[in-house]
Amino acid sequence: MSKIEVKNLFVEYSDNNKSFLALKDISFRVEEGEFVSVIGSSGCGKSTLLSILLGLKLPASGSATIDGRSITGAGTDRGVVFQHYSLFPWMTVRSNVAFGVKQSRKGLSHRQRLEIADRFLEKVNLPDFAHKYPFQLSGGMQQRAAIARALAMDTDILLMDEPFGAIDAKNRTIMQELLLSLWEGDGKTAKKTVVFVTHDIDEAIFLSDKIVMLSNSPGHVFREITVPFVRPRNRFAIFGTDAYSKLRNELMSLFYLDVAEKIGGDEVVI
Ligand SMILES: Nc1ncnc2c1ncn2[C@@H]1O[C@H](COP(=O)(O)OP(=O)(O)OP(=O)(O)O)[C@@H](O)[C@H]1O
Ligand SMILES: [Mg+2]
């Protein structure tokens, strides 16, 4: 049985008695310990898909399951980084992270939770901001704090919606490496199952085992692509290879083909 299975999923939004189809007949699986990226153009339904996996929204038809059970609500088995900043404004950065730990890891003392929070704030390079409030941080820093919170929760499943979108190039590279090293772990414990939404094709290739490409709105699975590079990965070793260029070109052409269809163009120039 797959860890996550989405089957013939249709998702609608209703407004003033009118309904809008956001996702159309989506099916894919994520195996336990697999790192899957979802890519697709703006508005194709990536965040909608994550809301289904989070249990914040229910499908119009079809199903989404974790360990074979329908997702009917939020759960502490899932850590999440939302696309838009999602820290509690009334808590310090450190309390935000410790609060996440409290939700998912039972039986720890307050002191232990704070120690974990400090460790993860160190990892995302925010130790000096632990006692600040979210409004005192830049957008990218808030997003790093939200990532620290999700990672510190140490859940089996991580759902991440463009987590590095607002982060500068240098910190983005650091965060990608951090995420991969935490995901790969020490080989003794089971790897986390990750669903990672991104616009960035290079990021998707570097991080993922599999890429699910969604078509334009209403989103449906346009293509599923397995990323062939062995792990642990070294970005500099991968980026120069022919296999990398081939895969990247394939993804780029699919991406632009889809965009060209949407705008009515018949030629795709990359
Ligand atoms: N709460 C809502 N009510 C009505 N329509 C919505 C709602 N949320 C999203 N939509 C619509 O559903 C479609 C998919 O939106 P969604 O946010 O899932 O896209 P996305 O792929 O995450 O886009 P982006 O890359 O810009 O974040 C869009 O057309 C959007 O307008
Ligand atoms: Mg989105």
Structure report:
This protein is of the alpha/beta class and 270 residues long. The protein has a domain at 1-66 and 201-270: Rossmann fold, CATH 3.40.50. Helix content is 37%, strand content 23%. It contains 8 helices and 10 strands. The protein has helices at 46-54, 93-104, 110-123, 139-152, 169-184, 201-207, 235-239, 242-263; strands at residues 4-15, 18-30, 35-39, 61-66, 69-70, 78-81, 157-161, 193-197, 210-214, 221-226. The chain has a 6-stranded mixed sheet with strand order 6-7-8-3-9-10, sandwiched between helices. The longest helix is centred in the last third of the chain and has 22 residues, at 242-263. It is globular. Bound molecules: adenosine-5'-triphosphate and magnesium ion. Residues 46-47, 83, 161 line the site of magnesium ion (MG).
Bound molecules: adenosine-5'-triphosphate, magnesium ion
**Main beta-sheet strand count, sense and barrel state:** 6 strands, mixed
Helix content: 25-40%
- Biggest sheet strand order reads 6-7-8-3-9-10
Distance between the termini: 40 Å
Radius of gyration: 19 Å
- Quote the CATH topology of the domain at 1-66 and 201-270: Rossmann fold
Number of helices: 8
Low-confidence stretches: 266-270
The overall pLDDT, averaged over residues, is 92
Number of strands: 10
Q: Return the CATH class of the domain at 1-66 and 201-270.
A: Alpha Beta
State the order of secondary-structure elements, H for helix, E for strand: EEEHEEEHHHEHEHEEHH
Estimate what percentage of residues fall within beta strands: 15-25%
- What class do helices, strands and sheet pairing give? alpha/beta
* Gross morphology: globular
Assign the CATH architecture of the domain at 1-66 and 201-270. Answer: 3-Layer(aba) Sandwich
